[in-house]
């Protein structure tokens, strides 16, 4: 049966799956409108990249996302087959490939709506999960932001590790005073627009404190710059805010991004040093220089983080903290407004708990910027969305190479590497050893920080440094004494670099970078490779050549958790080690696809045990029912055993559900005996919408949305109202029920006892009214018989008029009234009896009157 279009609200009911009820009656009635629901509508097209392809591939409306509008179209197309002319319009949603649109396809499409009304757990939540929960009204951006602020307050400067060597994380330098205000604005806009403006809308983000922000000072980790309030955001921060991200705070770092141990002086007394601890082992460093971002995101003090990388500063802390880190192609994202270390190699990028988060975050920050000339080609080279590469099968057919010299002599790394190769091959990749003649000088080239820092810092100071900052040169910074003491000699050496030394360095260094890029790209081409892979480092340790391959070629790299050390590795048990993928220029999408497939197949990331959920980090969703016990699938249809004709009655279909995500239900009835009450239908407390489509059948289509939890236990599938129109026994029957569980398995259920209803005849009353109770013999007498009955149906039938036992007239009852005339014949007192001879479903009745006849 082809079903008519349901309304959007019919599938967005607060507290339940939406129900579209399609009734069959003599005429079609329009869908009734529904009031505004507390549940947010499906999101509008996202400006910053809508997660693809899973959430977009089956789009039917052309807006490049799956929303409730697509479900409406599919409900209308139920039963369409590949031989129908309209098949091309709905073929993308034939997700089970059986060439017919069924409830299985509706369920599969529903799962691609960004919506989840189940319980929400903040710890380890991804941006996708946050958007689903916000769209379902389970959580708001304000709640997310406040929860992260609460976690920062509870965990960041508190020593929760009670071991003798336990330390506080010290991962956050500052939090934003306007973050909650921005989150409230995001929530308000979501309510007005029916969804987020992008996948980052309302998501709290932490920035390494070398990104300029208009609402917080940029210290670069140095006590000497605690008052560096810039007038502008960094270019990448502008991109994040434009996509609706909530800038939550600034993360700790190695002072001025020097080093891999995240030591800083900001917020401390002159002469003191603050160390960022790993949330997995607080006596160990979180890595650097983006160690604060790494520790904070790993400990769930923010949703998404950003770091910078000159010679490993994103990838080292990502490895130490079991995160995904992206070092983009130099030139993909603007560095304008980021405190530089060495612009020949500097780049900013995301640090996240998942590859999907990294892709979402990267979408917001890439693009050309005249203020950073190396980004001139970025607009042409960046895809519409990096999320379009997120395919769990992305490793199938991929060719990957590795260099034996990049495999550290470490028990944990060797074991994890062997497993990684096995895992890559299990996903369909070919992994082979390669050699690259001439690679050693590339891997041996040092960072540009020694010769470039002073020059590049001067440019930043001139263009961006806040007016109130006194230390306006590297020499002035050193002279303040408010720096990490152990870095003084490092700064002195760099302060002494002359313009001539800088120029000479840039000439030779640029040649090495360009040569290295050409050399490695050639090796990829010659060996027909998609990527080169290698361990990012060792447990709480680096392997310098591995960190240098990407910055010394300018090629992009993505690092992803590879596993953890165990006791037999003679290392720190539980210490993370990452696997790094390097590819061609601007091949970030391919790398994200490969790392996504690897991540999905292995799921190596673990959560730091010391930084678990706080009170309020888990919110109960309206769609959750933890007390429900999965049932045996029994279906029952129930109705009153006895009703009177003309009476409204309710029919309920229930299932003792085991795992119910969607269903298609048909209920049959005798239209000669009962009528489905279309006129009184509307939106009940589940947000259902009713329509009439034919005769003798009611069809109910019901689906959950997104990853909302399936229903289990006693579940009402339909509650319908009928009016009895004919007396006698009648039945209502479940003609067909097809259910789909949360795994997509469809089951047809036909065993359900009929609901038998005995419709009783309606008692009637009859009033007789004579035009005159005393007349002359032979004159005409007018008689009006009024038949009354309970209920909404007017009695029908005939009346028979008897005078002193003789039938004198018969008349039809019209609208409960019969009128007739008869001649008075017998003198004296005449007994007038009127008998009601009913049509079904009314009972007989009679009325009396007395007529006196005179001469």
From TrEMBL:
Entry keyword set: Signal, Transferase
Pfam families named in the record: Amidase
Organism: Nocardioides marinisabuli
SUPFAM superfamilies: Amidase signature (AS) enzymes (SSF75304), Carbohydrate-binding domain (SSF49384), Type I dockerin domain (SSF63446)
GO biological process, any: polysaccharide catabolic process
Ranges of residues in domain Amidase: 144-544
InterPro entries to which the protein is assigned, alphabetical: Amidase_CS, Amidase_dom, AS_sf, CBM2/CBM3_carb-bd_dom_sf, Dockerin_dom_sf, Ig-like_fold, TAT_signal
Molecular function GO labels: carbohydrate binding; transferase activity
Position of the signal peptide: 1-28
Name the UniProt record assigns to this protein: Asp-tRNA(Asn)/Glu-tRNA(Gln) amidotransferase A subunit family amidase
